[in-house]
Fold each of these.
Amino acid sequence: MTTAGVVLVDVVSVAVLIWILNLVRRGLLYVGYGVLFVGVLLLSMVAVSVPPLTNLLSAGLATFFPVGGAAVLGFAFVLVLLVYILTQTSILSNRLAALVQDLALSQAKTRSESDSTPKPLAEVRELPGGSE
């Protein structure tokens, strides 16, 4: 790979790295997903920036995966799509956790207002606030 190609890959990787860290910082992406992406980006930056390692990987992968430079754009698209999907999953999971906590607090408040002794689960016939 040429020097310009290495610089381009490193610059784009740093931009994606900053984007992922910002998503994790704002709570829009789980830390575990962020660590995974950061690790992959750092390893790919090292693999591209160190010429002997790049040559070794190129020779090893060329036998199993003979593709041109257009595949790099496809991989970049898949990476962005994967980050987007995992971000949306993290957002939905956070919303679900907040909703479940709110529901639990609401049920606890309803129980404490109506009866000081909790009923066994077998005696509860319907949920407070609505029917089935």
Amino acid sequence: MSDFELSVRANRAASCKFRDADAYQYATREAVARMVREHNPKRVILLVHGFSSKPDRTERAYEHIERTWGANLTDDAVVGAYHWPSSLAYSGPVAYHAARRRAKEAGRRLAVLIDAISDKGIDVSIMGHSLGTVVMGHAAVCLTDNPHLYVNKWDKAVFQAGDARLSMYRADTEYGQAMRKLGIDVRNYYAKSDSVLQISKLTLNGKRIGRHALIQPGWDNADAQVMHGGRVRHTTYKKSEPILMDSLTFLQ
């Protein structure tokens, strides 16, 4: 599999690349330890991108989010970026389903990062966009299956433009049970005007890519279109100041 990249970014405090599980665990714990030495945060807010996010474009989006949050970010919090290989050389339904398979491995590695941060006694919030929310779900399952996890500090999650097939988060599913077992509060931003989640005619072997906006019972569901004050497209979430500021209020 392609490189995963972790950038624990508090003024670009630490970054590392890794190719295999052992190297990843070592690099992750080293990056977290370096972040703690330099910033001693009480909370880390992780950002997880979605499908077909090229590194340079993702980096610009993350920088915009941090500029928008600006002085509203508390002094004891840092922002981290979790990069995973969601962009493929081809496009369309085949690429999307391939990225969904990669999301499972990305979730496992995100779980290692959450575990490393929690082990330092630091609270964790995660904001994911689109397919990034699926990565978060896989991470939750991995954490509940981890016999060595003595403390979990992941307590807040923001979903933006959640993948339309997130029925996997129902309370009676493995993912729903994992989120509940970990005690994670979820704020879910949805928009019925999001055309990407309406492309129900695009299928691969009879599997739908999207149907409609995700509204999950038991979560704090927020209509992004009302909050934004206008039509919300699939990429609006990471650009809209009202949505981003509301997300930060929840995450902190």
